[in-house]
Amino acid sequence: MTTDMLSPEELMVSLPSLQPRERLDLILELLSAADKRSEQLDHLTSVAWAYLTENQLWQAHSLTQEQVKERVDWPAVSERIARFEETKSRKEHELRGIEKAWGCRPEEALGNEMWPVEPGTHLLRQLHRLSKICGLPEARNRLADATQQRMAARKRTATGKLTRWASDLHVLTVDVVTTIEQLKAQAAPDLGRRTLEAGVPRGTREAKEAMAGESGEAMEVVEAGRATIQEEEEEEEEGGEDIENDELDEETVTEKVPALSSCPCSCSSTIIKDIQNMKGNTNNDRGLQLLAKALQLGLHNVCHNHLRTLAKMTVGLQNNMSSSKLRKRLQDAWRNKSHLDDLRRRKPYWFLKTRRPETDADRLVVYRYHPIPPKTFQFNEVKVFERFTGPGSWDGWQQNGTIIIPRLFGFLNRPDVNWKIDVEFDLYRYHHRSLPGRSRLGWLRNMFYSIIQQTVRQDPVWYAISAAARPDKNWRLISYPYITKDTDPGENTGFLHLDLNTTQYIKDGSGGNLLSSSIALDDEQADGCTVGVPGFHHHIHDWHKRLVERGEDTMGFTTNCSTVYRVQDRKDWGEPIPMPCPAFGLRLTRPEIIHGSTPYSYRRRRSLFAWYTGIDEAHINLDLKETLSWNDLAACHWDLEAPSREPSGQAPRYGLPGFRFPGSVIMGSSSVIGDALIGRRKWTDPQVIRELDILLGDDDTAAHIYVNRVRTKMIQRYKEAFEQLEITETEAFGENSYFRQKELGLSMESDSDSEDMGKSEEASKDTDKDTDKDTDKDTDKDTDEEI
Predict the structure, then answer these.
(1) Which of 239, 589, 599, 730 sits a CA distance of 20 to 30 A from 354?
(2) Segment Disordered: which positions (predicted)?
(3) Which structural domain range is residue 57 located in?
């Protein structure tokens, strides 16, 4: 590709020395050459990209195809490639038209001495126009004359480079346009002369009729030239020959097109009716069927208004343009009927946005570049799990499906934090109101967003262990707000269940990733703790078959096991055993593990729950479809409001606060991962991903340094928020404030403390040793199933 072109300075020096017409001709030549060079660059780009992709050259530098696109300004490159494909198609169209008119291709018609090596689109278009109004022999002679005249005119210029460039022996676009103009100028006078020779005076009706009825060559030249030029200008780049009726497959048209009706617009009544019935159509097959009927009738027989509607309803074309352009585009759509979406992808600006594939422009809108696609985040679950739970713990987790990790939250076990935790629990106990006729059953149902709860939900270690332990390894988690456990001596606390809809889990695995976990704030003993059946996740399928055989299969959000886990089941798969957790330790359990609580409480036992729930990639849905969405849950965290569904998906059965607890305080951010865990950020946030690379990465030292830094900030944020707690609660409740009552030395007994706390200590010691000996006694009847 030559670069022997004028510089801007040379052009400006040369132009004054030329005559006005010569200046115009020169600039037209230059613009034509520039267009040609642009086409050559598009061609070169297309060939280069095809070679690169076929041979995957990016591998030489350990790159991906997407990274290559970013380096080369892919939007611009893809535009050049697409433009080349369109140019190639247009050129073929023009060449077919020339061959149809002259009986041979233009390179054969003009010969090597006149035909350029790489003809541009504009040159081919003008030759196509010329071929419609002039035969080949005359056209060849006229083009040779126009070329010689151009060369002779350029020899007068003083610039050598200009002379070399402008004295191209090959035919140029300007030569063709000059020839067309000469033909147009000669045609009209010739027609007038021939009319006078026939003896018809000029200006008379007979002259006009003679001219109107003239079938000679001159009239054909004038009219064909005008029509062709106008049509070519209107259709821009579409091109394409008209589709004849016999091109339509008989199978495509399901009924014969009726004769034109006498409606004002002269359109077929059937076509009008069919167009009206197409309102709102998005079905390609249905649209193409009507288009086929219209093409068989002839698009020229459809008025402009109905043509616009036809274009929009059948194939989804933009329709704010002339009838000739609409006809061309409808014909092009028909030619591409077998791969219409490919046409929509190549020429998206032709089509309505709702009827074409999404483009880069649609996605980018006002942005200039596509970002580098984020890498797929992966981590070693075994390494992460044992990093925080100890060597060899992974095998025990896989075998038992439950684990207790002592002192995991030991960083909270310090005097300046412990008394604050005690105050928060006492405050919510003071404000708790039990529902009439129902015991509290060891739960604080008004305590969703105490500051200590907000703090531990953001803990990176609790999160890391939970993400590693999940069977699906989903690291996009959000804490599902839940109440706290705070039992009194003598309270009835017994239950036994599965955190699963067992039937649904067996069917499709629903709920199988939702782990249950809790932090103990007090040392638990074997007579007052969680109980469970270690390893039961290996047997749940066999047990469910028994339930079905016994007619005990249920479809609840959780599965009550107090009566259906029978004596034989226990012999085969194990008794529920106590699993006491020391203060500030963590208990983690798979959802397929039967677990519950000892029947009664003999001492105070407080627990906190995070309920880390999986989020889908779109940040819309959670592990269970019955629960709230990510957006809803994030709003709950922002507003400190209780969710209307529990982590299992069921609605709260023992009352739900209708508004935010007025004394609650929002704790500040401790880390970006902590923000993601409570819905303040999405897991797609680049800062979150960077911290994940540390916390869940392969470097143990870096991960522990990160954890220590975040936990130090957690303590700081906890203390800052606690300073606001007394002010906020006192302002919210005045004389009924917990802090005001405490300051006055008045009784701090809560509403729930005045209720019947259940059985006495002596009665409590009389544990139900005969539980589940094939009886139907429902020991869960008056207890709250901890989910």
Answers:
(1) 239
(2) 229-251, 744-787
(3) 8-235
